[in-house]
Batch of 4 targets.
Target 1
Amino acid sequence: MSTEPGEFMSTLTAEEITELRAAGRPRRWERGVTIMTEGDTTDWVLVLTKGRVKVSSHTTSGTEVVLAVRGPGSLLGEMGAIDGSPRSATVTTLEPVEGFVVRDFIAFLQTHGRVAVLLMQFVVGRLRDSDRKRIEYGAFDTTGRVATRLIELAERYGEKTNGGVRVALPLSQDELAGWTGASREAVSKSLRALRDRGLIETGRRRVVIHDLEGLRKRAR
């Protein structure tokens, strides 16, 4: 199974992955499909094996806030499965995706102690990441936050080219705005500023980063 570095499945052994897969059943979804809905009380988890999804929530005014983009190897829905609480976020496909659904995840963890410990460490890591993003919102301007998100996408999904690092952008500008905590207009202005400095080049659903180190400096 193709797994992105840093995702939960990258921490498991081949045997553990085989046993977890055996506990689930395969599923696939087309682009734009809602897999999990904020507030639902379903208790299954999804292991993503192909494609990318966005994890989002909505404010009381209805504004979508993108919390994360997840790819192959991601474990989704684990918090609701563990404590039985309603889903804390909505998961929507950004492209056709495949994975396998595990309905009795607690039973699997009870018989796989090492996986349970790894999951605790993984959840703590996500909480730390959430704290870091909250600090970014207060410390960085919109352009700095946009640069940070582009760097994250480049490090996870980027392909080296003669002109730099090419990223097939899975998000629309509205979704990128939701991911940076800014308006669409502010994100458009930030992208234009980064283009004017020669750091990036943008196209439909893609970004080419010409100067990754320069982008990192702007993010800081």
Target 2
Amino acid sequence: MIRIRRELSQLRADNAAKVPPAVSARVTAALRSAPRPAVHSIARPKLSRAQSVGLLTGLGAAALATVVGAHMLADDSSPESPARPTASKITVSGPPFPLSNDELRAALDTPPDLGPLSNAHRRGSCLAGLGYSPGSEVLGGRQLAAFGRSAVLMLLPGQTAGEVRAVVVEPGCTDAHTALLAETSLHR
């Protein structure tokens, strides 16, 4: 470190002799006579008329948005119900059940013919997917064509005494894919 200072001092001494004293005097005089700039002032260009209008418009829009937003947050009144129908008011009826109540009652009096769902494991999987216990008793049923495809009718006990739930499913019904085509209930 000391060596670097010594070399810099020597370099300065060598260069000082090369600058003519008249030039040094003029540079020093010019620096001393120059006006001193204010230390903390920052020179800013003035805004044009268009910039001023844009600035005022932007500030006004921000103030208006603040007022409207505060009003909307403070407003606790509920919106009026629309005149047109809403999703909560629309009811959709499914296709009609493919069998009449008389045909369903007749299926209760014959032994069940469940086709592929005659297998207890497959039937249990289907019943579980439909929300029934896999071991639910099947009161009756048969294979049929419904809605243009092969189907299986199963008659199951309902929620109350005397109620029978009739479900029509595709033959490949499983707990993951119930393939429910129609459902209804009837009383014995």
Target 3
Amino acid sequence: MTLKQTLNEAIKEAMKSRQTARLATLRFLSAAIKQKEVDERVELNDQQIQQIIEKQIKQRKESIAAFEQAGREESAASERAEIEVLSEFMPEQVSQDELNAAIDAVVNELKAQGLSGGQAMGKAMGVLKAQFAGRADMALVSKWLKEKLS
């Protein structure tokens, strides 16, 4: 079953069980997917849909930070609930140990090639992004990578 079919089934289930908050989040996601399909005149595959979900999650994380800074904890809690719903459609996240091992391997390989600084960072992020797209927060990966390279 494709990710889009899974999403449609989840929408139907949320309608039947009268989960209004969940239904609103799922419909918003479905609308974002349909908008992208209409704009580009293509049928999106699972990977492209996951990229849309990643973007939605990132937007909500930014909103949470803004709400918390403004002291609006109720709004932040609502955004966290939406992240939980969206996360259901993402692949299982990579473990911290696996990510650290991959970062170490890439850093060692680049140092063996004699690369350092910005060149190494760019190459390493390219390798890690291809390996962990959708399974890891790339902002955290970048932060940890910078620490290892320095």
Target 4
Amino acid sequence: MWLWSPARLDFGTVVKYFFEIPCVMEFVVFATAYFYLFNLGSRFDTLNRFCEWMPAGLVTAAGTWTQSEITETMERVRLLHSKLCDLLRVFGFGYGGVLLCYFTFNFFDLLRNFYYLIHVSRYDSSSSASSYNNSLNVILTVAFCLQNVVFVVCLLIAVSWINEKIIEIISFLRLIHVSKLPIDTKLQVKLFMNQLSIFEWDQFSAFGFFHINLRLIMSIFILLTTTLATSVQMKEHPYVVRFNNEYQSYLKFEYNMS
């Protein structure tokens, strides 16, 4: 807004600067969410790598940790794991509504862009200027589709990486023979297992409406495919033809206004 100052500042101008090109709000939501999720994932990864450095089976040996040090370390690891899971839950409660809106509007934006590529962009333009504008709109639409897909996939990969790191420590605990441990260490291991079973059901979600993981990609793909296939089957319907013509007129009007 400082480089290209608008002639007048009103609601429409603000919407154009922040929600259209270059999609400032969308990038802010993605960047902040990805930064926080990657930060938490790195902490879970560090915690898992620290567990690998502990004595095998949590059994003390000559020249290694004492049993009291092992018990104290297991307690600290368990409490740290619990605090990190609480931070993830707090982030889900605080940012879940934002992510819900982000994924919802991203889906509708993808649907609108694909609909434009399939139906509206195929209309031939009479003049060379209109043909150039149509080609430019197609290129921008493809670029926005790629941007939306990359942003959504990056967030889903980050959340799935965190979920993987949360339960990765289970494989470490399953290798421990609890019956051979002292009572204090045995108690910490059992508390840790119970803690993991509780957090396993508390998955990261978009404000409770759906879980955010890699399966969401398949759900979005199926929904997009079903909707677009239905629109292709009804492309000769009078209402669909009228809608496509109105959409094309709207795009021309927006380009002339800009």
